[in-house]
Design a protein that fits this description.
- This protein is of the alpha/beta class.
- Helix content is 25%, strand content 25%.
- The protein contains 4 helices and 14 strands.
- A 7-stranded mixed β-sheet has the order 2-1-3-4-14-13-10. Strands 6-11-12 form a 3-stranded antiparallel β-sheet, with no helix packed on it. It has a two-stranded antiparallel ribbon with strand order 5-9.
């Protein structure tokens, strides 16, 4: 069975993500009035999410856009809870926070091309990805941690610096999923050229998680509403 085609609602436009979606046959809408009618909401990259949203003081390395944060929080809360949601880079970090997770506000030793790995059948083995983030998701216990990496040497919170360079138990989350908000959080950039394995894997995960939900939503929206 081929890749399913979706209509994505994008609260904040990102031309590279739009190009990736169009190239694979998907549609994109930006109108707030059409948000709940779309198949999947997709949150894109950009500035760091302000740590006020996960209960920390801001570090000097954290570069946030509180106006965008507030706008996207409003969008997130306006969407049906069961609606599939996907985030890339900042967008993934945003969905992680909205689902109860937090962030390491700064990380050392993690920038540019690196490998990610997983036990799932989708990756099959380590693949190379490109990362531009200087923060790292700290998923809540409710998260399903899907993909990981192992290249960070230190992580910074507002109260401590943790040496992770020799800690084999430290989990460096690259992708996670929250069932209670139906949110997929992806830190690498599948829209970047030169990483076809990541792009293919990204859409395989979307199909695996959301295909049945989208079919159900489309069926529900197609049914006539009876009055009286």
């Amino acid at each position: 069975m081929g890749e399913m085609r979706y209509t994505f609602y994008m609260p904040t436009a990102d031309q590279q993500v739009i190009g990736m979606l169009h190239k694979r046959g998907h549609k994109v809408t930006y109108a707030n009035d059409d948000a709940a009618k779309a198949d999947i909401a997709i949150f894109t990259g950009g500035e760091d999410v302000h740590p006020i949203f996960y209960g920390e003081d801001i570090l000097t390395t954290t570069m946030s856009n509180i106006r965008r944060d507030k706008r996207e929080v409003k969008v997130f809360r306006s969407l049906p809870l069961e609606m599939p949601k996907v985030g890339i880079c900042r967008g993934g970090q945003f969905l992680n926070i909205m689902s109860g997770g937090a962030m390491y506000q700064h990380i050392d030793g993690h920038l540019g091309a690196h490998e990610i790995f997983s036990d799932d059948w989708i990756l099959g083995g380590p693949i190379k990805v490109s990362s531009t983030h200087h923060q790292l998701m700290r998923p809540s216990p409710e998260a399903w941690i899907m993909w990981q990496a192992q290249c960070t040497s230190k992580v910074h919170t507002d109260s401590e610096v943790i040496d992770t360079s020799h800690d084999a138990d430290f989990i460096e989350t690259e992708m996670c999923y929250y069932s209670h908000t139906n949110s997929l959080c992806c830190q690498p950039h599948p829209e970047y050229s030169g990483y076809p394995e990541l792009t293919d894997a990204f859409f395989q995960v979307i199909d695996m998680l959301f295909e049945k939900d989208v079919d159900k939503r489309r069926g529900t929206q197609a049914k006539p509403v009876s009055v009286g």
